[in-house]
Amino acid sequence: MIKAIVTDIEGTTSSIEFVHKSLFPYARQHMRSFLREQAGDPLVQALIDDVEAVVGWDLSIDEAAGVLEQWIDEDRKATPLKTLQGMIWKTGYQAGELKGHVYVDTPVYLQRWHQQGLQLYVYSSGSVEAQQLIFGHSDAGDLRPLFSGYFDTQVGGKREATSYRTILSRIGLPGAQVLFLSDIGEELDAARSAGMQTCQLIRDTIARPALAHPQARDFSEVSI
Ligand SMILES: CSCCC(=O)C(=O)COP(=O)(O)O
Ligand SMILES: [Mg+2]
């Protein structure tokens, strides 16, 4: 019996278009000025140190901005980039320049599953702060009260089974009682390797069907 649902964001609760055409361009547009203004913040400096560790040499602020802009263009899921994006998006949401997209069925079924007593969690490459922002400032209002917890790449990459084992140990349930929702077959494969139940969301024609997993066109078709 399913007792918890862990959901991906991009392509699952929210559209890929919103992430790639609104969120990523917003972060790219503001990355350089954000780094220039916030370089004195020890957290920002530590994130730049993490970028330097990946590229293998010291970077000026402008060079770091150039690397991070390139990573945005390449859709890299690097943790320092994801943390910085969340910090930049926070300003955008607070200024009303960003509104978190969720599909119309997303709040309806999150609410229904929550009322049924299921525990709801998020696992996204976006930072925990970014996850709380998109659901806190969503088209359907503040959805954060529905969630019991959030996981990002601090637990590991989404295509690695060990990440899902870590999530299971944090949730405190066996994999057989946890359903993972995602649009990406490799993520579902990794979750299943860790023992989780899976369902692939095929929201649009961009999605690549992974026939090894049950499929749903929206949350109304997800079988609990
Ligand atoms: C938290 S909203 C931004 C999502 C994001 O940055 C991203 O890279 C999409 O990752 P996901 O794991 O949700 O597909
Ligand atoms: Mg996704």
UniProtKB/TrEMBL annotation:
Keyword Iron-sulfur part of the UniProt annotation: no
Pfam families xrefs: Hydrolase
> Which HAMAP family does the annotation name?
Salvage_MtnC
Protein name (record): Enolase-phosphatase E1
What are the names of the required cofactors?
Answer: Mg(2+)
Q: Coiled-coil regions in this chain?
A: none
Pathway assigned to this chain's UniProt record: Amino-acid biosynthesis; L-methionine biosynthesis via salvage pathway; L-methionine from S-methyl-5-thio-alpha-D-ribose 1-phosphate: step 3/6; Amino-acid biosynthesis; L-methionine biosynthesis via salvage pathway; L-methionine from S-methyl-5-thio-alpha-D-ribose 1-phosphate: step 4/6
Q: What does this protein do?
A: Bifunctional enzyme that catalyzes the enolization of 2,3-diketo-5-methylthiopentyl-1-phosphate (DK-MTP-1-P) into the intermediate 2-hydroxy-3-keto-5-methylthiopentenyl-1-phosphate (HK-MTPenyl-1-P), which is then dephosphorylated to form the acireductone 1,2-dihydroxy-3-keto-5-methylthiopentene (DHK-MTPene).
EC number(s) from the headed UniProt entry: 3.1.3.77
Write out the similarity annotation. Belongs to the HAD-like hydrolase superfamily. MasA/MtnC family.
Annotated Gene Ontology MF terms? 2,3-diketo-5-methylthiopentyl-1-phosphate enolase activity; 2-hydroxy-3-keto-5-methylthiopentenyl-1-phosphate phosphatase activity; acireductone synthase activity; magnesium ion binding
Identify the keywords attached in UniProt to this record, alphabetized.
Amino-acid biosynthesis, Hydrolase, Magnesium, Metal-binding, Methionine biosynthesis
